[in-house]
Amino acid sequence: MLDDTDLYGLNACYHIVLSEQWQRRCDVKDKRIPSVIFHRAIKRIRLILLNFFS
């Protein structure tokens, strides 16, 4: 089951992704970087969810 630390990690991960995207939105040259961060975050979230459902 998800405990508070998992939920906190999930939230932190999500907020990091959002803030990164907003920071980079002005900087069109660095389009690749937020997508890397985003995919890394998605992997982490999926891992947490897999642990939750298994």
Automatic annotation (TrEMBL):
This is Uncharacterized protein. It comes from the Eukaryota. It comes from Dreissena polymorpha.
